[in-house]
Amino acid sequence: MNASLFSVPTYAKRWLLGHGLWLFGGLAGVLSACSSENDKPKADEPMHTLIFMDKSLSLNTNQAYAAQKYGQLLDDIVKNNVRTTGDQITVYYIHENTAKARALSLTVRTEMDDVTNASPTDVEAAQAAFDLALQREKARFRKQLGNKLAQTNEAVSNQRTDILASLSVIADAAADGQLLSVYYFSDMVESMPTRAGSATARDFHKTPPANDGQADEWAKADAKQLGDLALGSPSVRIVLPFEPTASRRVNNPTVTRYWRTLFAQFGADDLEEE
Q: 158 — phi, psi (to 5°)?
């Protein structure tokens, strides 16, 4: 049999080569896009928002600047983090006994009706009903959060500030496997005596880190003392109460450096400060 009958002309080879690569590239792009979409958090995946509100003497959240700043952030949290059934907001107070200071626990109870076999009109109506009920829950959440922010601490626990204890709270929340966002409404000035079972104690009111090098050194040492805490990969946002004109003595950057390094030791290095 003549093999030339089955040979492919040169122009055909060029067409197959060019269009074959194009088709392969297009397929690869589709697969890549699908992979990227799968990696993204789903819009209806419940989120846990953990808020630490400082209730020690060094911070007064009712002062005008701090109240406005924190109030606006609470608006943003409710708007952006309360989206679907199962979303949670938990508030802990920071003071001498932070680990036992859960002050508020909220969970979205609103549910979307099953619209599997519904008509487009019924789907639209169900969505509208869900949105309305969710807005009511948001309004209730915002009021309760505002009340907790304004609450003052007159107890003796206001004499100390145990921020390090918040890491065990984060670890417990991370164990649930939900998306986790963490906020600190605090000046981040740790102020504790010697900790039980620990050779270290930090009182940044008396002795803040002298420089970035010492902040890193202390943070790494304290991370070892705290042990193997699994924080997951939460987003961590430190919201300081200081005005932009605050001096270095008031808003000490080495204190923030300490916390940034400490969180990095536990893998939660996505830390924002404002």
A: -75, -5
Would the pLDDT of 10 be above 60?
Answer: no
User: Is the distance from CB of 181 to CB of 49 less than 8 angstroms?
Assistant: yes
Report whether 114 contacts 123 (CB < 8 A). Answer: no
**Confidence band of 61 (pLDDT split at 50, 70, 90):** confident
In whole angstroms, give the CA distance from residue 223 to residue 241: 26
Measured distance CA(253)–CA(236) in Å, rounded: 17
- Residue located via tokens 């309004």: 139
Q: Determine the angle formed by the axes of helices 120-150 and 64-81, rounding to 10 degrees.
A: 160
Instruction: Enumerate the domain spans of the chain.
Output: 47-273
Residue 101 — pLDDT band, cuts 50, 70, 90? very high
Query: Longest C-alpha distance within the chain, in Å?
Result: 101
Task: For the beta carbon of residue 78, count every other beta carbon within 10 angstroms.
Answer: 21
Q: What single-letter amino acid sits at 31?
A: L
Stretch (H or E) spanning 180? strand 179-185
Query: What is the Cα–Cα distance from 239 to 234, expressed in whole angstroms?
Result: 16
Instruction: Tell how strand 47-54 and strand 102-107 pair up.
Output: unpaired
Calpha distance 43→135 (Å, rounded)? 17
- Selected from 3.50.50, 3.40.50, 1.10.101, 3.30.1240, the CATH number assigned to the domain covering 47-273 reads 3.40.50
Distance (Å, whole) CA 116 – CA 105: 32
Residue 139 DSSP class = H
Task: Give the span between the Cα atoms of 26 and 18, in whole angstroms.
Answer: 12
Rounded CA gap, 251 and 187, in Å? 8
Tens of pLDDT, residues 175-218: 988 899 999 999 999 999 865 555 568 999 999 999 999 999 99
Give start and end residues of each alpha helix (H) in 48-119. 64-81
